[in-house]
Amino acid sequence: MSRQPSLITGLMLLALLCCVTVGATLAWQHYCAPRIAKAEQTLKARALLTVLPADSYDNQPLDTPLQLKEPTLTNSTLITGYLATLGGKPRAVVLHSRTNGYDGPLDLLIGIGSNGRLLGVKALQHNETPGLGAGIAEPGNPLMQGFVDKDRTTTPDSAWALTRDKGQFDQLAGATITSRAVVNAVHDALRYFDEHAEVLRGGTVHE
Fold first, then answer.
1. Cα separation values, 136 from 99, 101, 112, 125, 163, Å
2. Model confidence, pTM
3. How far apart are CA 81 and CA 70, in angstroms?
């Protein structure tokens, strides 16, 4: 008969331990959340320096998020957008795009001037293979550099593909899937900008 109280006591201790563990985990997540958010903002701020010319804006684009309607595109999804202004006038939009790379989600920052021309593309986060697809994050890599100054007028929709797919863009060596995903996501972003240019340049801010 003495086993039953011991069993109940053991179960109560186990339940108490589970509650303490869950509570500690939630408290730690709550404690870390602001630091994680700050780190993500810092990463985006650094990336913005590479997709927007330094003298092309005088505001803080990350403080001017845009409301994006119908963000699910053909090959990618737009997470958010930011408006860059100079002297109070819209100069560029930066779109945070997410697509699927070879090894998982691939996030890009895509800078587009108010005239619809690409200013720069930067890999924000990725899980691509070191020495292959991870090359998209290397400064000055030819794939990303090849987007600068392109738009849908000088580069028609049919040309937005890898050269092996009868398009205009050279892939990273050994990274066909990653390169194709990036080209398609950038093309998506340009199409989206062209279709929503008036709203984006007007700066409909997300509250």
1. 14, 11, 19, 10, 17
2. 0.76
3. 13
Q: What is the count of structural domains for the chain?
A: 1
Residue 140's SS3 state is coil
Q: Look at 137 and 145; give whichever has higher pLDDT.
A: 145
Cα-based torsion angle of the residue sequence 191, 195, 196, 201 in order, rounded to the nearest 10 degrees: 80
For residue 160, which of 191, 114, 133, 192 has the smallest C-alpha distance?
191
Place 165 in a pLDDT band, splitting at 50, 70 and 90. very high
Domain range for 152 is 52-202
| Residue 7 belongs to a domain | no
Is residue 40 included in any domain, yes or no? no
Average pLDDT over residues 104-123: 93
Strands (E), the chain: 65-66, 77-86, 89-100, 105-113, 118-125
